[in-house]
C-alpha cells in the first residue's frame, strides 16, 4: 500500500503565496485614506471575522482592524465551550477559503497530516479546526489585536466610534460584528431555574464549567440539543457519578432540515420575499434538528441517561442539592444542573449597541405573518439589509446605524444559517465585503473620479504614434 507523506505546511504556504500572486491578490489598496479613521473595524477574529476581514483585504480594502477579546488560539467556541469531539458538519467543508483551493481546510489537513490521514478522517476535530483558522489568520496577514474587548459603538458625525475596554476610541466608517451566537442577547436562562443557583449549583452549556469539580457527583441536564448532550458527555469523561438528561419531547427530532439548505439557499435566501423567508424559517424551526448521531452514540457509550417526555416544571435549591420537579409532579435530586436552553435574541440586551438599540428594525416591525405562523422568538431578530447591515425602525434613527453589519447569529431570520454555521461562512464574508465595497466606492466616488482624471500613463510612448503633450 502506498502512503502519501504530509506535504508540509511550508510547501503549502508557498503554494498559497503563488496562488495569491497569480490571482493578483490582495487587490490594490484603493480606498482614499481619512486621517485617524479606519475604513472597517471587524469585531471578532473567529471564522466569521476571518471570512469578513479576509474578503475585505483581498478586495483592496486594507485600512481595517480586527479586535478579538480572546487570546490567540482561543477565538470562537471550538476549544472553549464547544464540547463535542469533532465538528458536526462533514469534513469536506472548504472553510473561509475565498475560492482559493490552497486555503481550504482539506489543503491544510493534507499538508499537516498527509493524504492517507485525510482519507481516513471522518469529521474534523475541534482543535484541528481551531489550528486551521489560526493558520488562515497568519496566511492572510490579518491585522488582529488580541485581548481587546469592544465595549460600545456610538454614532460620531457620519462615522462610528468603537470604544474598547481600555477606553480607547477607534473611529471607523463601517463596523462588522462577527461576534458569534450569544452576541444578540446572551444565553437564554429559563425562568423556572433560580438565577442565584448559578454558578455554584447550576450553569449554562456555554458557561466555562469546572468539570473536574463534578467528579463523583450526580448531574442533571435540561435539553437534548447537541450542546446539552456534549456537556453531559464531558462530565462523565471527567468522572461524574451519573448524568441524567431531561427532555420535554416524547420523541427526539429525526431530520436536520437545515442540512437540506445547500449553496443555493446560502446565496439566494437574502433576496427572497419576506413571506418566503418566514415560511421556510418557521418550517425548519418547528421541526427542530436532532442531535448528531455521533453525539448520541457518545453519550450512550458513556452511560448518560436520557429521559424523554419529562418536561421540567421547576427547580429549587435545598442545601447544596438541586431538586428537579417535573410536570407529572415527580422530583429528583442532583448535585449540579446544566441548562441547555440556547440563546436569547433581544437587541435591547446588547450593551455595545445601546446607543442604537431603540432604533434597530426587528422582523416584527417589517413583516406580519398569518396567525398560524406567528413566532415571537423569530420576530425579535433584527431585520437586516442585503449586506447584513442594521436598518432603521423609525425616522429618529441615527444615520450611522446602517454602517453596522451583523455577521453573527442576529442574521438568522434574515439569512438563515449563512452567518452562524460553518458551511456558508465564505459566502457570508463575501456578501458583507461586497456590500461594504459598494458603499465605500459610492461615498468616495468624487475622489476616485479625480484620481481617474489624474491618471496619466501614455500607452503609445514607445510607438511612432505617440503625441507628446504640449
UniProtKB/TrEMBL annotation:
Assigned keywords, A-Z: Oxidoreductase
InterPro entries registered for this protein in UniProt: Auxin_biosynth/cation_transpt (IPR050982), FAD/NAD-bd_sf (IPR036188)
GO MF term (any one): flavin adenine dinucleotide binding
Short name of any one Pfam family annotated for the protein: Pyr_redox_3
Name listed for the protein in its UniProt record: NAD(P)/FAD-dependent oxidoreductase
Source organism per UniProt: Rhodovarius crocodyli
Amino acid at each position: 500500500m502506498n502512503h502519501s507523506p504530509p506535504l508540509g505546511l511550508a510547501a503549502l504556504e508557498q503554494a498559497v503565496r503563488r496562488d495569491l500572486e497569480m490571482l493578483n491578490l490582495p487587490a490594490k489598496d484603493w480606498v482614499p485614506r481619512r486621517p485617524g479613521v479606519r475604513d472597517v473595524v471587524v469585531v471578532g477574529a473567529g471564522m466569521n471575522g476571518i471570512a469578513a476581514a479576509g474578503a475585505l483585504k483581498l478586495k483592496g480594502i486594507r485600512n481595517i482592524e480586527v479586535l478579538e477579546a480572546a487570546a490567540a488560539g482561543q477565538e470562537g467556541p471550538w476549544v472553549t465551550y464547544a464540547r463535542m469531539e469533532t465538528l458536526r458538519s462533514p469534513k469536506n467543508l472548504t472553510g473561509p477559503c475565498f475560492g482559493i483551493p490552497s486555503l481550504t481546510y482539506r489543503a491544510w489537513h493534507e499538508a499537516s497530516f498527509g493524504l492517507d490521514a485525510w482519507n481516513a478522517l471522518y469529521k474534523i476535530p475541534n482543535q484541528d479546526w481551531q489550528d486551521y483558522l489560526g493558520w488562515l489568520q497568519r496566511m492572510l496577514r490579518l491585522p488582529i489585536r488580541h485581548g481587546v474587548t469592544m465595549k460600545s459603538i456610538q454614532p460620531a458625525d457620519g462615522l462610528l466610534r468603537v470604544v474598547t475596554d481600555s477606553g480607547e476610541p477607534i473611529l471607523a466608517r463601517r463596523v462588522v460584528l462577527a461576534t458569534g451566537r450569544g452576541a444578540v442577547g446572551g444565553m437564554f436562562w429559563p425562568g423556572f431555574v433560580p438565577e442565584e443557583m448559578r454558578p455554584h449549583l447550576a450553569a449554562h452549556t456555554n458557561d466555562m464549567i469546572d468539570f473536574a469539580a463534578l467528579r463523583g457527583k450526580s448531574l442533571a441536564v435540561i435539553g437534548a440539543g447537541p450542546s446539552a448532550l456534549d456537556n453531559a458527555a464531558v462530565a462523565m469523561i471527567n468522572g461524574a457519578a451519573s448524568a441524567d438528561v431531561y427532555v420535554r419531547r416524547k420523541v427526539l427530532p429525526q431530520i436536520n432540515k437545515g442540512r437540506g439548505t445547500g449553496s443555493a439557499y446560502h446565496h439566494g435566501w437574502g433576496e427572497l420575499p419576506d413571506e418566503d423567508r418566514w415560511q421556510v424559517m418557521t418550517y425548519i424551526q418547528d421541526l427542530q434538528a436532532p442531535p448528531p448521531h455521533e453525539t448520541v452514540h457518545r453519550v450512550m457509550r458513556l452511560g448518560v441517561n436520557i429521559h424523554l417526555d419529562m418536561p421540567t416544571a421547576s427547580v429549587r435549591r435545598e442545601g447544596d442539592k438541586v431538586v428537579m420537579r417535573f410536570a407529572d409532579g415527580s422530583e429528583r435530586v442532583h448535585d449540579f444542573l446544566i441548562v441547555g436552553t440556547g440563546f436569547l435574541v433581544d437587541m435591547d440586551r446588547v450593551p455595545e449597541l445601546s446607543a442604537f438599540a431603540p432604533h434597530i428594525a426587528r422582523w416584527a416591525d417589517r413583516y406580519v405573518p398569518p396567525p398560524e405562523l406567528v413566532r415571537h422568538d423569530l420576530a425579535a431578530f433584527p431585520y437586516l439589509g442585503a449586506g447584513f447591515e442594521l436598518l432603521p425602525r423609525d425616522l429618529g434613527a441615527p444615520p450611522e446605524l446602517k454602517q453596522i453589519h451583523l455577521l453573527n447569529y442576529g442574521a438568522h431570520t434574515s439569512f438563515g444559517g449563512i452567518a452562524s454555521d460553518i458551511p456558508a461562512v465564505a459566502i457570508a464574508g463575501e456578501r458583507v465585503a461586497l456590500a461594504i465595497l459598494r458603499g465605500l466606492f459610492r461615498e468616495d466616488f468624487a475622489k476616485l473620479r479625480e484620481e481617474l482624471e489624474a491618471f496619466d500613463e501614455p500607452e503609445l510612448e514607445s510607438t511612432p504614434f505617440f503625441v507628446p503633450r504640449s
